[in-house]
Batch of 4 targets.
Target 1
Amino acid sequence: MTAQTTLLIVGVLIGVLALIGAVTRLFQFGVRRTQIRPGRTLILRESIALDPRRRVHLVQCGQRQVMLLTGGGEDVVVGWIQDS
């Protein structure tokens, strides 16, 4: 085995380990984002894409919920949802 082959193998191994680490961090970020923790006052309940640029979000703020339209020219508070 030559020195060049050894360096290639080590480089590929480092690349694979870095890729596994990056995927692990992305997975952990996604799991943390979807968990609801006790004592949280701001929670994203739903998010729906209207088109490639605009989305409608349902956000809980304390005991109330608000609907937001984001993207496009500006972000807009559509309104607060009344409790029934």
Target 2
Amino acid sequence: MAATIRPAAAFHRLHLLREGVGRGASAVFVIRVASAGFAYAAQVLAARLMGWDGYGIFATAWVWTALVGHSLTLGLSQGACRFLPEDQARGDADHVRGFLRAGALVTGGTALAAGGLGMALVLLEPGLLPAPYRIPVLIAAAILPVFAMQDYLEGIARSQNWLGLAIVPPYLLRQSAMMAFLVGAVLLGAPPVAGTAMACMFAAALVSTLLQARLVARRLRAAWPAGHRRYRWRHWFGTSLPIAGIDLATAAFGFVDVIVLGALVNPAELGLYFAATRIQQIAAFVQYAVSAAALQHYSAAQARGDRPGLVGLVRRQGRLTAGATALVGLGLLAASPLLLALFEAQASTGLPLLAVLVAGGVAASLFGPGADLLTMLGGEGICAAVTGTAVAVAAILCLILVPVLGPLGAALGMALTQVGRAAILSLAAGRLHRLSTPVWAAGAA
């Protein structure tokens, strides 16, 4: 009797995981595609108002904001998706409340310090930056605390499966508000320059973060009433700091091509390349959407000892991500002449960049969720080391290829490195956790 009940229960849990992840990923992807539409419109608007030179300066300032801002939670944003589901599965409310407060205090303090330091450097040493970059970078430093806190709030909401609340404020509301503020500022007489665009981004980030903070706090109070708090600082930071390394390396990996190009080409060429990356980013949303829906389920399944559910989740995530990435990528390539024309960019110039970037993303997706497994189940240091090495390799390839091929060299260097990183992370996850992640694998090793 027991022998028949246990497999049936395991099958039921696996079914729930599959259905929950599928619905969650679809919801997140729809939201991200909608936000991508607003973000794309905002980027087109900025490029047309400022011209390619001003747009290139704005892109540089925003890339550095995102690169630094993602790391200022010290890994506690992603850590929330690991620690909170584990504590909830054990019914440990004291540690849940302790983590929520500790994460907010650490994120806020670190981000304020980093933003203050950045502003001080720009004001006290203005010669560090060319004149057109000073105001945009000064505003970028002011954005850092807001950006980091919103990143932490997103992690908290994702850990509780509040996916709409996690995704809509930073990716839909922030982008649409930025666009509205930019149009309003120009109509009121503000000059259409990078500094104006960054000021509008600051206002949009502040509005969306305050709203998200209020909604998240309200739900947390309902789910976890006030009570005793316990803290596991060594455990949390022992895990989260390597995750912070992963976050920083991943953010750097996503922007290293833009950073290298900024040093080697003029702002106009950089603006065109950045426009191509914004279009390709729509395909990358597939990976984000499925991960956002799946990460917390990895931790919960591991805490319950549900190995069949974990194996099934890995298979589903890998196949769903690869298939959807390929379909979205092909759609982007088909629509690329129109998408590039909105930027006033020639398809003959932008299409090769987009094609190479999309091909790299699709090929990398075939290796499955290796990074997610290492982040959620153990192996953060390995993931951080591999991603950090990938950043260095991508930078070297860009430095070699850009002088020969121009922006196309940066796209090629990124695509090759992206595939290599995915393959190594898949191999590492398979050896450490006995889970085969490539889409052609059977599941458990």
Target 3
Amino acid sequence: MLENLAASDETLAPDRALAARDLVDKLLAMLKPAERLVIDMLYLQARSVAEVQKLTGWSAATIKIRAFRARQKLRKRIGGLL
């Protein structure tokens, strides 16, 4: 969902793009800082696990686990909003 919202900014009407970005910001704010960082880098900045590894010093396993847990939390939050 984050990828779709981030990628569709150009195709959305300006008011919808703003609302989508606001939703992404609110969802990301619900995450722990490390989870927020990994989601931002992997999905919004489209960085690879190797790039995130170099920038953070975390192992690939740590990055994947944090991303997995963050995605689970986001799914729960989105489910609660619908």
Target 4
Amino acid sequence: MHESVRGSGVVARSEQGAEGPPHSVVVVGASHGAVHLADQLRFGGYTGALTLISDEAHLPYQRPPLSKAWLKGEVTPDSLVLRTADHYRGNGIELILGTTVRRIDRENDGVVVQMRHSDGSDRTRTFDRLVLATGARARRLEIPGGDHRDVLVLRTLDHAHRVAERVGSGPVVVIGGGFVGLEVAATLRGLGIEVTVVEAGSQLMGRAVGAGTAEFLLAAHRKMGVDVLLDTTPTEIVVDGDRIRAVRLADGREIAGTTVLVGVGADPRTELAEHLGLDCERGVVVDDRCRSSDPRILALGDCAVQEGCDGVRVRLESVDNATEQANAVAATLLGRDVRGRPVPWFWSDQGAWKLQIVGLIGGNTDVVVRTDPDKPHRRVALYFEDDVLVAAECVNAPADFVAVRSALARGRLLPRDILVDNTVPLKKLLTAVCAE
């Protein structure tokens, strides 16, 4: 969900070519952030040429439902689209689908983009400004059998089609206890499919949530009937003939399965940025305006690492982050001020358990947990730094999440001593504080 990289201060940037509205903008990538950027530019009065290039053949679509509603058959490709084809045409947004950007070069004050279309034809075009929204690619298993056709990942609609085709064929082994793996595991278990989750770490969602919340959700998954194995490493995908039979573990055990879903994280797609000579460190490094080390080139979403004033570079994989960075890119291209970055937030639906997180949980050791004996499925963990609330994890507590998010977004300092009273609803406590 997020990762932090200690940086070396502010990136040096040339201002050449950074002034004035561009005549043409190209966005490489067409996921949520890219589409939101295109809308913000048009709604903000930008009248120049605007092009989105996607290597997928589908209209840009929502991705969060792929691990849940899609597998349950509750949505269709048409219901997932972010905007209709008429929307792009009506707003003068050129959407080029099924096209791979093979190379980008800088030329004078613009960029030259070399594309290959799905029919094999090549095309080269020049644009004033470039936005990289290339996203990230799912990591694969580097173990024997890891390249089998039924070892799957889930990041795109095509991936989701393949997972849906396989889930009825027998037991599923999920490698990785992160958000995607757990969402898929809970969904499949709800469909009556036998599921085992194999996690190499000592807790679920190790980089994203605290130990207490991880334990709470571990118990929830086991109660659902998901077999969860921690501190466990797969060493081989065992194949009989041309079919998967099991996953062999480091201790010699074999977990029966006919399909393996790999959810062990993703790597930002930085090849184009690296060819351009941009500063990259686990992503394309950008400032608060989403400018790369070349101010003519911007980046947003899963491929971008944003550098804060504290020198820490953070890459966030979330719809909220893509939206906020798209807002920043639009403001930059339009020559307007960029508003301060709100506190980031995330969510994950795992069966009947809704996890909502606001803020980033780092080395915070001061945690206040709020529970209700009458609501055993509900849990709220509040994280403090110097006795001030900085983050919260809410499980099946949407009202508390909204209250905390709203208070933090307004920049209110929330002292620890006023939030520890578990007998008073959190929303009431926060309302009283914000009214002062």
